[in-house]
């Protein structure tokens, strides 16, 4: 059954022009290292990401991972002339994957010279935010205190009972590698400040147990009453929704470099808008607060505003550097509809030259002529993203007229921007290979994973059930006859 599904995928890849590979690894419930291979390509103008297989590995070094990927690619691209089909490979930014000398991407590129490496942009967004938090001590302290809220309520069911009584919802756990959890924690604490204050006061008064809980509840209560903490919480409450939006966009299967450029511009504009509100974030000091005992070291409002400006600048600068479209991804800027009018006045010759060097299968002179026509026509300036422009050209029956543009658009759409599909496959792995089924073979694991991950593809496959029956019927001689003529 698993081989039948793979043969259908092989047939799809045979009919497509370009292919990209996505790979990542994780540890299953049996503590075995599992590497997943996903193939991305176009089917009838729509991008698909097909699960190929899980591969159990004894070692997680670059050579072992590259051999696994090469073994999978050699099955879907068996001929030497097919190697030019592989135009992209997407992994995380670990050195074993991204190393220029001995990394997986460099080893794969030796056999597939057009397979350009893409560092998963969802991972890069996580790195941007980690840099913004770690470089400023006050913000690092703020997130340390903030994570204390979720940690406090994960230690005891009795504490959770107080939380359910006052707040009515649980606090998300803080995870370093998943910044959407950090943003949810910020939003939850901000929206339920009064309820959390009531909860901690209730614990301090009515707790019957260890004094550690009372001491920690008192400390968290002081955080919620601290003016600096609330100011930083207000700032990140304005930032995090935009992070959530971008994080969700980076997990779309239909994401292409051109659309990601628009997402990049929107995110930078949103951060700049929040940056302009920084002087009004910290509330004025009331007479009651001035009469209270002040801490020995107090940070002025000007200094706190400077800190938040610094955090905003760090986010923007690191975001621009990590989301910079250079080398092979510079070709995405050729289809930025907002720049078509400017390109009509001054053609981007340098970007076109870089694109032709990255993808030798393109005819540079013909591509230049076709792009010049697109830049001069108003109807193409309404398209947002490479997918929309490709569909417009196909619906207008212009595939032959703009053959090189179509080819470049297919390359851009096929190029993956994130390895989110690998994370989704790992979720399926946890559901399929559980503690009670931890001794299943790799063939059975891949078969069950294929049925779960690619169920829509299998349902749409012609005569799939009949072919499975015929395969089992011909495996060996049986007493019962499964095939009737």
The number of helices is 23
Q: From the helix content, strand content and strand pairing, which structural class follows?
A: alpha/beta
> How many DSSP E strands?
5
Biggest sheet, in brief? 5 strands, mixed
Task: Please name the defining characteristics of this protein.
485 residues, globular, alpha/beta, five-stranded mixed beta sheet
Overview of the structural elements:
The chain is α/β, with parallel strands linked by helices. 59% of the residues lie in helices and 9% in strands. The protein is built from 23 helices and five strands. Strands 3-2-1-4-5 form a five-stranded mixed β-sheet, with helices on both faces. Strand 1 and strand 2 form a beta hairpin. Helix 5 (121-134) packs antiparallel against helix 14 (301-322), helix 18 (386-395) runs antiparallel to helix 19 (403-414) and helix 20 packs across helix 21 (442-453). It is globular. Residues 288-297 have low confidence and may be disordered.
Blueprint of the fold:
Blueprint: H1 2-15, E1 19-27, E2 33-43, E3 46-57, H2 62-76, E4 86-91, H3 95-98, H4 104-111, E5 116-119, H5 121-134, H6 137-152, H7 157-166, H8 179-191, H9 193-206, H10 211-225, H11 227-249, H12 257-276, H13 287-291, H14 301-322, H15 340-345, H16 349-358, H17 364-376, H18 386-395, H19 403-414, H20 420-432, H21 442-453, H22 455-460, H23 464-473
Parallel strand pairs: 1-4, 4-5
Antiparallel strand pairs: 1-2, 2-3
Helix pairs in contact: 2-4, 5-14, 6-8, 6-10, 7-9, 8-11, 9-10, 11-12, 12-14, 18-19, 20-21
């Amino acid at each position: 059954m698993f081989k039948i599904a793979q043969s259908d995928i092989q047939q799809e890849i045979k009919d497509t022009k370009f292919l990209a590979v996505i790979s990542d690894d994780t540890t299953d419930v049996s503590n075995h290292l599992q590497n997943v291979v996903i193939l991305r390509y176009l089917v009838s103008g729509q991008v698909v990401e097909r699960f190929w297989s899980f591969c159990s590995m004894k070692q997680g070094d670059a050579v072992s991972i590259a051999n696994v990927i090469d073994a999978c690619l050699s099955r879907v691209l068996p001929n030497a002339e097919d190697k030019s089909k592989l135009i992209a490979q997407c992994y995380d930014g670990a050195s074993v994957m991204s190393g220029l000398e001995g990394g997986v991407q460099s080893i794969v590129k030796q056999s597939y010279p057009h397979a350009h490496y893409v560092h998963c942009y969802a991972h890069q967004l996580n790195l941007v935010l980690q840099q913004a938090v770690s470089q400023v001590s006050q913000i690092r302290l703020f997130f340390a205190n903030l994570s204390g809220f979720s940690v406090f309520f994960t230690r005891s069911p009795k504490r959770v009972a107080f939380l359910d009584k006052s707040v009515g919802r649980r606090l998300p756990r803080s995870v370093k590698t998943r910044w959407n959890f950090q943003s949810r924690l910020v939003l939850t604490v901000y929206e339920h400040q009064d309820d959390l204050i009531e909860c901690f006061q209730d614990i301090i008064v009515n707790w019957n147990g260890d004094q550690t809980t009372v001491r920690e509840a008192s400390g968290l209560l002081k955080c919620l009453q601290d003016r600096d903490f609330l100011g930083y919480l207000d700032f990140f409450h304005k930032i995090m929704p935009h992070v959530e939006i971008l994080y969700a966009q980076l997990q779309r299967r239909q994401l292409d470099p051109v659309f990601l450029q628009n997402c990049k511009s929107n995110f930078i504009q949103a951060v700049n808008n929040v940056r302009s509100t920084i002087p009004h974030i910290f509330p004025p000091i009331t007479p009651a607060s001035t009469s209270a005992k002040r801490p020995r070291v107090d940070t002025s409002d000007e200094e706190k505003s400077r800190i938040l400006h610094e955090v905003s600048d760090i986010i923007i600068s690191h975001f621009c550097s990590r989301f910079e479209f250079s080398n092979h991804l510079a070709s995405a800027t050729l289809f930025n509809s907002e720049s078509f009018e400017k390109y009509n006045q001054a053609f981007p010759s340098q970007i076109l030259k870089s694109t032709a060097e990255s993808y030798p299968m393109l005819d540079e002179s013909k591509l230049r002529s076709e792009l010049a026509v697109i830049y001069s026509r108003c109807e193409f300036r309404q398209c947002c993203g490479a997918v929309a422009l490709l569909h417009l050209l196909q619906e207008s029956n212009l595939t032959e007229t703009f053959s090189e543009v179509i080819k470049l658009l297919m390359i851009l759409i096929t190029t993956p921007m994130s390895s989110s599909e690998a994370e989704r496959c790992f979720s399926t792995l946890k559901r399929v290979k559980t503690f009670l089924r931890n001794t299943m073979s790799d063939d059975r694991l891949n078969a069950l994973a294929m049925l779960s991950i690619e169920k829509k593809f299998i349902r749409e496959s012609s005569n799939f059930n009949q072919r499975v029956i015929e395969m089992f019927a011909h495996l060996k001689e049986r007493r019962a006859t499964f095939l009737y003529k």
